[in-house]
């Protein structure tokens, strides 16, 4: 257990170093919120809106609650995702379910970290979808339309280190 914590601490310190070298928190350029919210009676996993080229990251329904909670805790803690919308009274608090809250947090992290596949892994608890999970007053951030290949390559290379470290950190939590 001590060696696991030591490795995790080293990874977190290295991650901090990478973020400092990159000049602050890794945030992709020009993120926009989804244009419209969907019906307020539908939970996030039930919507079917597709906007060409737009993707979201949501929690898998088949994942055990313990793993989902661990990944949610990471996203809202060391992952630096803003989870204030999930607090009581927030626009995404209802439905007050682990799946709904995890989906919102996972998507926020995914959008803030360049929409790369690794930014939507969370130890195998999440998946990329083209279905807009927004509902009622809870609007999920969405990916920008596909950028030019050179700009996409620069953004991906900037986020690979952070994404790989996130994957390793989550993996260590499940050991």
Automatic annotation (TrEMBL):
**Protein origin, superkingdom:** Eukaryota
The UniProt record lists the X8 domain at: 55-140
Its cellular-component GO annotations read: plasma membrane; plasmodesma; side of membrane
Write the signal peptide boundaries. Answer: 1-23
Q: Which SMART domains match?
A: X8
The way this protein sits in the membrane is described as: Lipid-anchor; GPI-anchor
| InterPro entries from the UniProt entry | X8, X8_dom_prot
- Do the record's keywords include Membrane? yes
Q: Which UniProt keywords apply?
A: Cell membrane, Disulfide bond, Glycoprotein, GPI-anchor, Lipoprotein, Membrane, Signal
Disulfide bond among the record's keywords?
yes
Where does the protein end up?
Cell membrane
Primary subcellular site in the record, as a coarse category: membrane
Q: Which PANTHER family match?
A: BETA-1,3 GLUCANASE, CARBOHYDRATE-BINDING X8 DOMAIN SUPERFAMILY PROTEIN
Q: What is this protein called?
A: X8 domain-containing protein
What is the organism of origin for this protein? Dendrobium nobile
């Amino acid at each position: 257990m001590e060696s696991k914590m030591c490795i995790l601490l080293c990874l977190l310190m290295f991650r901090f170093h990478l973020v400092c070298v990159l000049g602050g928190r890794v945030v992709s350029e020009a993120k926009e919120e989804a244009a419209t919210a969907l019906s307020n009676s539908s939970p996030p996993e039930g919507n079917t809106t597709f906007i060409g080229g737009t993707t979201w990251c949501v929690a898998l329904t088949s994942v055990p609650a313990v793993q989902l909670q661990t990944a949610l805790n990471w996203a809202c803690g060391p992952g630096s995702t803003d989870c204030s919308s999930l607090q009581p009274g927030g626009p995404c608090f209802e439905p007050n379910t682990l799946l709904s809250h995890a989906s919102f947090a996972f998507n926020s992290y995914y959008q803030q970290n360049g929409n790369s596949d690794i930014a939507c892994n969370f130890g195998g608890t999440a998946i990329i979808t083209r279905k807009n999970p927004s509902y009622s007053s809870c609007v999920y951030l969405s990916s920008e339309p596909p950028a030019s290949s050179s700009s996409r390559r620069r953004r991906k290379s900037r986020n690979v280190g952070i994404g790989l470290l996130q994957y390793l950190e989550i993996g260590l939590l499940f050991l």
